[in-house]
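User: Mind token order:
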Amino acid sequence: MMLSVIIPCFNEERTIAALVDKVFNETTKKEVIVINDGSTDNTSQYLEKIKLKYKRNNLTVFNKIKNEGKGSAVRKGFELAKGDVLVIQDADLEYDPNDYKKLLKPIKDNKAKVVYGTRLKTLKFNLFGKDKTPFPLHYLANQALSSLTNVLYGSKLTDMETCYKMMSRDVYKSLNLISNGFEVEPEITAKILKSGYKILEIPISTIPRSYHEGKKIKTQDAFKALITLFKYKFKN
């Protein structure tokens, strides 16, 4: 069983090399597909060095001419993927590739076709103290969007917006994604659930990064996600 790891990236010169190293150091049999979404910093130069370093490994780097958004990069990755199972991996260092194995196990054991890594079962909401929740508004927005997803689609998700969405080949090749921006996250979830697939959630841990460190999702993306959830509920 081969895993396709799709890495959309835009202006990630500070993290892309370390992230690709972490992905290849994880021992699952895999292909790695990096979609450079029109980066304007030194990401492209770093990717050229990464290609030389891993030239004997199963690595594909696709450079888009202009920046079109995460959804556009994810769609290209889905198009190029050849694996039996696919997972999306953000190019920052928030998510740990060592979680692949525990996400993959239910699919290998034929217990699920789709597995999400949930952050919110382990990340509790605190406004004060050393365990203060980073980005509390994002936390609440994600909870609200996850709850809306559950109401609209009859699911029981805790973290609809998670990056770690893992699915078997027959699922990811059937989605026919169209989103260009961050609304690709609810589009993926809505289409999976509307097709009748159950989503199994497994807890993961993350290290959230700040806007100063390059975080890109914005407040308006929550409104786009809300619209997307309603759109696919009522669209054939």
